[in-house]
# Entry
Amino acid sequence: MLSALLSLTVLAAPAAASPAASKPPPSGIVFLEDDYRSALAKAKAEKKPLFLDSWATWCHSCLSMRSFVFPDAGLRPVKDAVVWLAVETEAEKNREVVEKFPADGLPTFLMIDPDTEQVIGRWLGTSSVNEMRHFVQETAASWQAARKGGKVSEAARAEQEGHAAQQKKDHAAAAAAYRRAVSLSTPTDPLRPERINLLLSALAATRTPEALKECVALAGAELPRIKATPTGAELADSAATCAAKAGDNPEAKALLAAGLKRLNELAADPKAALSADDRSSIYASVADHLDELKRHDEAVAAMRKRAAVLESAAAKAPDVATAATFDAHRTETYLYLGEPAKAEKLLAAREKEMPGDYNPPARLARVLLEQKRAPEAEAAVNRALALMTQGPRKVGILGLKARILEAQGKDRAPVLQEQLSLLRSLPASQRNPETEQKVEAELKALGSGPHAAR
# Structure
């Protein structure tokens, strides 16, 4: 046991910091990194739930949580409530945990019973400091009560049933369980808003007209009550998204308008418990909806507000790694606004500042391709690939290289073969059949069948 625990790599949040040079942040939270089995043993030994942060280096929201939420002193009351584990989902060494606990999106935060390895708490997306503290406190307290033979609330029990169903990808059963959890939650339960978001997510995943109708009704009923937090913003976005998918009817139109109005209010509210990354995501969502409604001028205005938020946050960042948290959003914003030169300048400088990170040259390659500078884009994408290991992100970068080669009239079949081989080698939870079929079809059209990639 002791030797296993000593093998853990210790990482003080944020993740971008050097483990050797870091000291515990104001929260006191120290993440164990990329060693699920040892972290599980530690949780068993200490009789605590295991907190699992599934993240990736390209995930801007993951980096935002690790840079701004987990180090915050407001989480100090829960630093000893759980064993904290961070797992980089792109790393091959984490294949077991990625397959065991599939994430529908990143970031995903799970609370795990170390004795049964069952999910007892699930948080999707970002959170405020207060929301994360309540999530950890309530879930850990409920687990400890159950372990000691105490009473567990029916709402918590129903939520755990939903997590079990979600882990099996049974979205209908998950929705049914989360529905019970919501109905059993008191209005003041701090976990009720996230249970609603879990239900909305499960309903969306079922992809049925009945589920969409329920999503519209639930989101519409809850919208007037949401708080100015990441969870509230997620609910407002779900309201707008469900309404947009529900078709052309008065109820859906009214909900879409109300959802967009509330999102704009949240993003502009300086007192809202939202990070710059949260506000950026809100403005991007608003712009997407406005473009769908053919209101492009308003969408551009939203994206200009997004650029201002991101530039301000990057300018205030204490170090390069924290400033880089905003690079992904800044890049896509500049491209949307037709300002690729700004993105190129940002990423060229960042590549020099962070020479071991594949993200700057990968993003730069996309920018250069958009500017029809394919030879330079090819050089940039090759620099990125040279820094990458296997993983879902590499699938996308290989796809980008194939597009760059196509733009130059070069043979892209070998790159597509490599992309298909990588796709087929991923953990089951990360495989994408639609992408595999698309690559297979492209290879067939080129006269290079996928047989070589099997």
About this structure: The first strand starts at residue 9 and ends at 12. The radius of gyration is 22 Å. DSSP finds 21 helices and six strands in the chain. Strands lie at 9-12, 30-33, 50-55, 83-88, 108-112, 119-124.
